[in-house]
């Protein structure tokens, strides 16, 4: 596979009380739908960051061609944003080309990737947010810098890691941790997203704790070069 050629799948993020798609997350795939690991394996760091820098503009192009109506979540590697605004240029130009307001773009930073200078990163993120974009911490609970990152920088969204949520209806310790995180989100004005939700039992427990935004196979698998609708609507808690 030519690793310079890639495309995207899109997975819905659902507002469960209404059953509507809140956003779609763009997930990198190979040109024939190959998984992200296959696309990224073997790339050295410069190639990885070139792909990261160019991918967001291409994801916007594809999503709009497919008929995107709502928000679009885009992943990025923290170090790729540095201090050089040219890294954001392709994304901004793509959004402008399609008349897509920046307010409908959500940039996700993966909590599990170490960020050396948290204060500097937080300052950079505040500059980007001032342009109108929303910001999210992805995979919260999977890495070692999540609480420190949250202390320095309060995102618009916090996406709870799927490993933390797996079988949560049966795990008292996980329930205590998630309740504490949700309480912090409420105090800080941050919306929580439950990632990787696969069962009705997981959904019901999380919905009972006030979570409204969900992403996972229960609600819809990623669609290769497609914007899938939610699989289940208006599910009772």
From TrEMBL:
Question: Which Gene3D superfamilies does the entry mention?
Answer: EAL domain
Q: Which domain of life is it from?
A: Bacteria
Q: What is this protein called?
A: EAL domain-containing protein
- Residue ranges occupied by any EAL domain in the UniProt entry: 1-236
**Which PANTHER family is this protein grouped with?**
BLUE LIGHT- AND TEMPERATURE-REGULATED ANTIREPRESSOR BLUF, CYCLIC DI-GMP PHOSPHODIESTERASE PDEF
Q: Please name the source species.
A: Sphaerotilus natans subsp. natans DSM 6575
Matching entries from SMART domains are given as:
EAL
Which InterPro entries is this protein grouped with? Cyclic-di-GMP_PDE-like, EAL_dom, EAL_sf
Q: Name one GO molecular function term.
A: cyclic-guanylate-specific phosphodiesterase activity
Task: Please name the SUPFAM superfamilies in this protein's record.
Answer: EAL domain-like
């Amino acid at each position: 596979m030519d690793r310079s050629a890639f495309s995207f799948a899109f997975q819905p993020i659902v507002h469960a009380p209404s059953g509507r798609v809140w956003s779609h997350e763009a997930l990198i795939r190979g040109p024939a739908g190959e998984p992200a690991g296959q696309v990224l394996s073997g790339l050295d760091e410069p190639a990885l960051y070139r792909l990261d820098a160019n991918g967001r503009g291409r994801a916007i192009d594809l999503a709009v061609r497919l008929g995107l109506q709502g928000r679009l979540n885009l992943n990025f590697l923290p170090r790729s944003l540095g201090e050089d605004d040219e890294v954001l240029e392709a994304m901004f130009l793509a959004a402008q080309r399609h008349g897509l307001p920046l307010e409908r773009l959500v940039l996700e930073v993966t909590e599990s990737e170490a960020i050396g200078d948290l204060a500097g990163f937080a300052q950079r993120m505040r500059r980007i947010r001032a342009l109108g974009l929303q910001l999210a911490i992805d995979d919260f609970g999977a890495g070692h810098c999540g609480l420190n990152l949250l202390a320095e920088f309060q995102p618009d969204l916090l996406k709870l890691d799927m490993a933390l949520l797996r079988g949560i209806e049966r795990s008292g310790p996980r329930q205590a941790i998630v309740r504490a995180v949700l309480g912090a989100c409420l105090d800080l004005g941050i919306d929580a997203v439950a990632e990787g939700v696969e069962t009705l039992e997981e959904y019901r427990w999380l919905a009972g704790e006030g979570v409204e935004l969900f992403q996972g196979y229960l609600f819809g698998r990623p669609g290769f070069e497609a914007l899938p609708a939610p699989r289940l609507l208006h599910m009772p808690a």
